[in-house]
Amino acid sequence: MSGHAEVKVKIPFGNKQLDAIFNVPKKKLRYGVILTHGAGGDMNFPQLVSLAAYLASQGILCLRFTCKGLNVAYRAKAYKTVVEYLKLSDDYKLSGVFLAGRSMGSRAAASVIRQLSEDADNDDFIQGLICLSYPLHRPKLQSKLRDEDLLFIRCPVLFVSGSADEMCEKQLLESVASKMKAPKKIHWIDKANHGMAVKGRTEDDVMEEINVQVFSWLRENIELEHK
C-alpha cells in the first residue's frame, strides 16, 4: 500500500496498554478517524485494515486500536482514552476526528460521543460517527433495541449495514434513524449479513463499496464544516 505509513503505538489505559496502529497519510492531515473492532477479533480484522489503508491513501489519518473487553461500558472507557490520546498528540495535530467502529465497536463509539456531548466543556473535536454493522438488537430479539445513545447524538452519523444483517433489521434501523436528532445517512449493502458477507461477491469487492461510501461521506462532512 503506497501513500501512507503504518506506525505502531501503545496507548496507556489504566494499568494496561492498548495496542494501536496509525495509518499516516503522506499528505498534510487535518482530520482523522479512530476505528475499533466488534466483540470478536481485534484491530487487524480485515475490514478495518482495508478501511484504514483506504482512508490514509485518501489523506485521512486513521488510528485503529484493540480492546478485548466484552462489556460495552469498558469498551467505551477504552475508546474515550484513545480519543484523549489523539487529541493531546503532538505528532498528529488534527482539526477534528470521526469515531468509527464495527458492530460492538460502533456501540462503544456512540456511547463515547454521547458522554462527551454531555460534558460542559465539550469542544468540536469530534466531528461525527461511523457505524459499520451497528448491532441494533440481538439476533431474533427485535423487541429490545440498543438505540438510546443514538437518539442523544447530534453530530452527523453514517450507518453502513447489510440489508440481511441478523442484528439490524432494515425497517428497525430506518425507524430509529427517523427519530434521531443528528444528520444521518444509511448505506445498505445489498444482501449482506452482519459480517458483511454477500453470496456471489468477494470480500474485497464488498469492502471497496464500504470504503468508497465511508470516504465520500467523510469528505462531504469535512467540506460542509469548512464552507
TrEMBL record:
Organism this protein belongs to: Pavo cristatus
Domain KANL3/Tex30 alpha/beta hydrolase-like, residue spans: 33-211
PANTHER family per the UniProt record, alphabetical: TESTIS DEVELOPMENT PROTEIN PRTD (PTHR13136), TESTIS-EXPRESSED PROTEIN 30 (PTHR13136:SF11)
Taxonomic superkingdom: Eukaryota
Family annotation (InterPro entries): AB_hydrolase_fold, KANL3/Tex30_Abhydrolase, NSL3/Tex30
Name of the protein in its database record: KANL3/Tex30 alpha/beta hydrolase-like domain-containing protein
Pfam families attached to this UniProt entry: Abhydrolase_11 (PF20408)
